[in-house]
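hi! just following up on the protien thing from before. the input was this:
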Amino acid sequence: MDIKLIVSDLDGTLLNSKKLVSGTSIEIMEEAAEKDVDVSIATGRMHTCAAFFGRIINSRVPVISCNGGMIRTADTNELVYEKYIDDAVAEEILAFLFENGVYCSWYIGVENFAPYFSWKMFPDYTTVKTLDFIETGKNYKKYAHKVTQFILRDNKKLQADILKRMDAKFGRYVSFQQNTGYTIDITPQNTNKATGLKLLAEYLHLRREEIMVLGDGDNDLPMFAYAGTSVAMANAKEQVKKRATFVTADCDSDGVSDAIRKVLNI
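and the predicted 3d structure came back as:
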């Protein structure tokens, strides 16, 4: 069955080590569009970032952010889908993090929140020219309504037992994804890139066999299982490579472009 939608992860996949989309990737995605193949993004980052890079690749369809918790258009931010953490749970999570001195950012709609903003906490985001944050200080309670995702952050290393403690306290209500040691994503339960991709497919009236996905991390595995064709980067974790249809070059060697050329014969 022909591919009609290509969905790429950002960090370590579409973005190279400089956190940029290569000109080659942009060109090949334009060629895909000429063949009536749409391109999109599925990322653990907030919608601001997904939309920014979605515009760079000229995505004509909505983009997936917050590990599947949000789907909006890249150009107008029109809402297709959102899933929220329970308001009471969100407030308790914020109280726990503030009490334990754990820095976090969180997302409500298209707005980004943090106690304070520091580039030291967002070293991989400097290439996003539309990044804005509302600084809450300790006045977080009025910003705990309809939260789509929390991100725990540390520019050195997160507290060693923070995930264990949070899982014991909140594991019944939320999911923990993409633990890098420096960041941990917290989403509503049963939310991942596959749930977001399935909803986008339904929105576009596509079958899973008509979708190709690219990624490199653990949080890409659910959409690997869902899509008809899955591509792992050469820089991906070994368990990701094992679950892929095939492996392409790394993110600094235009692996995304090579994979698209191979599948679409362009």
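DSSP finds eight helices and 14 strands in the chain.
The mean pLDDT is 97.
cheers
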